[in-house]
Amino acid sequence: MRSTFLPFCRPSIDDADIAAVEAVLRSGWITTGPKTAELEEAVRLRTGAAHAVAFCNGTAAMHCLFLAAGLGPGDEVVTPSMTWVSTVNLLELLGATPVFVDVDRDTLLASPEAMEAAITPRTKAIVPVHYAGAPVDLDGFRRVASKHGVALWEDSAHAIGTRYRNEEIGAAGTGIFSLHPIKNVTSGEGGVFVTDDAELAARMRRLRFHGLGADAHDRNQQGRSPQVEVVEPGLKYNLPDMNAALGTSQMKKLDAFTAKRDELVRLYRARLAEVEELSPLADPAWPHHHARHLMIVRQTDASPLSRDAFMAALKSRNIGTGIHFKGVHRHAYYRAKYPGAGADGRLAHSDWNTDRLCSIPLFPDMNESDVQDVVDAIKDSYSEARTAVATGAAS
Ligand SMILES: *Cc1c(COP(=O)(O)O)cnc(C)c1O
After folding, report:
1. Torsion-angle region of 82 (φ positive above 0: left; ψ -120 to 50: alpha; else: beta)
2. Which of 25, 259, 292, 306 is deepest in the core (most CB within 10 A)?
3. Is 183 a catalytic residue?
4. DSSP alpha helices (H): ranges in 209-347?
5. Is the pLDDT of residue 167 over 80?
6. Interval between CA 390 and ligand 1 midpoint (Å)
7. 376, exposed or middle or buried, with CB in 10 Å at 0-12, 13-18, 19+?
8. pLDDT per position as a tens digit, 213-267
9. Active site residue: 35, 124, 147, 183, which one?
10. What is the rounded average pLDDT of the residues 327-353?
């Protein structure tokens, strides 16, 4: 057994990252300023997006997007239930209505057909998730959005560096990346909004900072008028330069990180191929480049362990795991608010995965022997459980 704990995720921070943050700390300007502009430019150039606006986290960017769209009571937004709670929480806070759709059982991606079927005259937007670093079928979603005149907002929190066919996620349309520490590239906390809509980008910049016409750096350092006024009420969701410098430094390593993640996933798949108790996620059928954000496995009917028992067994062997995600309709508040959400098997695949999935360790600083430790711990957990069952049956 491993003598040290292997977490399911750990950010890969090197000396260049530390030097970049230190330089900001010594510079005399630590909040939003030139380093945030640099990060926005790095994401813009990398993704091919026309506009990139950095936020203090991805959820904040999404909040401003929902405000910019004027979402409120009577408006519906279609979202998979298999997503992080950000989207649905924000809709609730604004008095709008989330409409849950199911996902493919083995990719956890929502289909354009499922989302189209959930569209009503009240629908304002559809929000597919590029799950675990795999792209949704964007061509299909674009057709559905334009056919019904609803907005398409991509939750690209897992998808920095993902390509759909030959197109980088973020190159077209409107979406949100997260730079949270578990994501493939991190700024500590952070998020970047991307869009090809210039007016929307300008509005997002304003909503990010009190609804003022210019931010603190413009006013204090660039000689702009300190008398700048509120154009509309906004929030205080700007990203400090301390964080942005880390994000820009990390962006330089995106391809190396993804290549390493891909190599680790290949090792896992080869070594778990004969473990019939587990079913890893499948890759989507359309051409793509996968960002390998998470290594998700599901307990099959052949497993002697429940998902929770499996996680506990790995933990006792010094292996960390996580849950990405529990269907939003299964959280306490949403169970009470929308008790019919999963009725009649409408969210059957989301429910199946909610009960069976967990993420096993995957981060660029892992090596082949770490993967082997995880595989050994998995096999050992199953064989111990079978022994316990056999012993129990005999007594
Ligand atoms: C991480 C995440 C977010 C939110 O990002 P934060 O930067 O943590 O606010 C949104 N959606 C999904 C699917 C995520 O995984």
Report:
1. beta
2. 292
3. yes
4. 216-221, 241-251, 254-272, 307-315, 332-337
5. yes
6. 43
7. middle
8. 766 666 666 666 667 899 999 999 999 999 999 999 999 999 999 999 999 999 9
9. 183
10. 96
Q: How far is the CA of 35 from the centre of ligand 1 (A)?
A: 22
Q: What is the mean pLDDT of the chain?
A: 96
**Of 112, 97, 165, nearest in space to 135 by CA:** 165
Looking at residue 394, its pLDDT comes to 54
Q: Output the six-digit token pair for 110.
A: 């929502």
Q: Rounded distance, CA 99 to CA 126, Å?
A: 9
Say which CATH class 15-251 falls into. Answer: alpha beta
What's the rounded mean pLDDT across residues 319-341?
97
* Domain coordinates in residue numbering, the chain: 15-251, 254-394
Cα distance between residue 245 and residue 251, in whole Å = 10
Q: Return the CATH superfamily for domain 254-394.
A: Aspartate Aminotransferase, domain 1 (3.90.1150.10)
- pLDDT tens per residue, range 22-71: 999 999 999 999 999 999 999 999 999 999 999 999 999 999 999 999 99
